[in-house]
Amino acid sequence: MVRSILFIMTVFAFTQTNAACPYDPNCLSNPYGAGSPYKADGLMNPYSQYGSPYSNKSWRNPYATQAPKLYDQNGNYRGRLSTNPYDPDSTSNPYGRYGSPYSTDSINNPYGAGSPYSSDQIFVYPDE
Hints:
- It is a single chain.
- This protein has one domain (1-128).
- The protein contains no helices and 4 strands.
- It has strands at residues 7-9, 69-72, 77-80, 122-125.
- It has a 4-stranded antiparallel β-sheet, with no helix packed on it.
- β2 (69-72) and β3 form a beta hairpin.
- The N and C termini lie close together (9 Å).
């Protein structure tokens, strides 16, 4: 059984979240919590299944098809946290709904879901 892993991101860029949640254990910008490179199932651990550049479940693998999914605090799907530019749901697909800087559903849109002024938190879940 796959455990659900919850990570909190307030905006799409990890560097922008430092002021928002540096002490939250579920925040990716906390280097001693979810953002630790030593956390066994962490996104920032290059040897975990979610952080390895070779795992099909990793956000770092540009060919991954089961990258972690993003949801906002209202339960709206925000795509896959992925470096795969060909996946239609990838946040790295500049022509896709969730990667385009012009789509209101994209965390890459500074005036939409990815606004640094938005109070909405983004949650990252592994693909089951």
